[in-house]
Amino acid sequence: MDFQYFELETFQSLYERTVDFNLADSSVQCAAVSDLLSGGDPEKLASLPLYYPEVNGTRRLREEIAALYHPADAGNVLVTVGASQANSLICSTLLEPGDQVIVISPGYRQVWGLARNMGCLVRELQLRPEDHWRLDLDALEKLARPKTKMIAVVNPNNPTGTVLTENEMRGVVEICEKTGAWLHADEVYRETEQIGGPTPSFWGRYDNVIVTNSLSKAYGLAGLRIGWALAPYSMIEALWRRHEYAVIAAAGPSMMLAEIALNGAKRLALIQRQKDLTSEGRRILADWVREQKGRFSWEAPPATSIAFVRSHLSLSSVELADYIRKKVSVLVAPGAYLGTENYLRIAVGYSREKLEPALARIADAVSNLEFAQLLDSMKGHS
């Protein structure tokens, strides 16, 4: 049978351990276990019995997650192995062959690929740089049909970093209400805002909404592989039944560390750490782009620790990313794998000691590329 590869994740899986600098990730420089533990935490973790944990997530963790949303309680939460498992469960629960699904591009193309592999008709709403990547509600309404089963949004957006306005969020909900579609809101970049306060959640705005999130982005804890789905009780029950088939449960030690991470001052400290890393990384990238003499352009977005950088070179994004990887051992993500050509996604939430030399290598690679192209052009005219 035909199978749509998850091109971005395939690209990262194959090459992220083979390069000197990996800037293709979508999180900040992640924290260490030691950054989480204080007081009696090390002893508690060391003495944790390694029985099967609660399949839907420990009660304490689900309560900590529910407290981030209003109104919600632990019964609205299913703890998953990252937001990626939550997204996968949603697709397998809601979708059937022939269903219509709307996704936003550029975007993280997990739902796009899962729905295609399930035999769904996937419609893409293309965001445009000339509109500053704003959501076109009129275009979304034209795409939506009475048979649209699900509309999937990522807010703040990966990779553009844009945040939906209150009017845009209200418009998305109204379109879902008119069609009866489920709203799948991937909110893994909430709390990564560099401009303005925390992005409002879609939770509580619509009866048929499912929100996903994780500790990977805002908290810099991608290695814990802890995510969650937030949904009405009946939908959580349906997701839970499929969760049992897929993984049984998330890991007990990861859930204990997640409980620590989401508790009070520790949570705020992790978020501030992420914002500080991103803020410095953005300044470094902005200086670097200005030095590139028009080869690249970038406009700082309101949120995320990633930059969607426009390439003004002649190579496609995949060709350019491959060239950079092979030439100078730096990994960046091709925009084509996120649904938009001529862009590179570059992670900036790293220390200066990592980001500056990695960007310097990219500049060297591009200079060498232009020189080689010039020589080829001269040979062609000789």
Short description:
42% of the residues lie in helices and 15% in strands. It starts with 6 loop residues before the first helix and ends with a helix. It is built from 13 helices and 13 strands.
Model description:
The chain has 2 domains: 7-30 and 266-366, Aspartate Aminotransferase, domain 1, CATH 3.90.1150; 50-263, Type I PLP-dependent aspartate aminotransferase-like (Major domain) (Aspartate Aminotransferase, domain 2), CATH 3.40.640.10. The protein has 13 helices and 13 strands. Strand 12 (333-334) and strand 13 (343-347) form a beta hairpin. The mean pLDDT is 96. By secondary structure, it is α/β, with parallel strands linked by helices. It has a 7-stranded mixed sheet with strand order 2-8-7-6-5-3-4, sandwiched between helices. Strands 9-10-13-12 form a 4-stranded antiparallel sheet. A two-stranded parallel sheet has the order 1-11. It is globular, with a radius of gyration of 21 Å.
Keywords:
382 residues, globular, 7-stranded mixed beta sheet, alpha/beta, 13 helices, Aspartate Aminotransferase, domain 1, 4-stranded antiparallel beta sheet, 13 strands, 42% helix, Aspartate Aminotransferase, domain 2
What does the secondary structure layout of this molecule look like, with pairings?
Blueprint: H1 7-15, E1 21-22, H2 33-36, H3 41-46, H4 59-66, E2 77-80, H5 82-94, E3 100-105, H6 110-117, E4 121-126, H7 137-143, E5 148-154, H8 166-179, E6 182-186, E7 209-214, E8 227-230, H9 233-246, H10 252-261, H11 264-290, E9 296-297, E10 306-311, H12 317-328, E11 330-331, E12 333-334, E13 343-347, H13 352-381
Parallel strand pairs: 1-11, 3-4, 3-5, 5-6, 6-7
Antiparallel strand pairs: 2-8, 7-8, 9-10, 10-13, 12-13
Helix pairs in contact: 5-6, 5-9, 11-13, 12-13
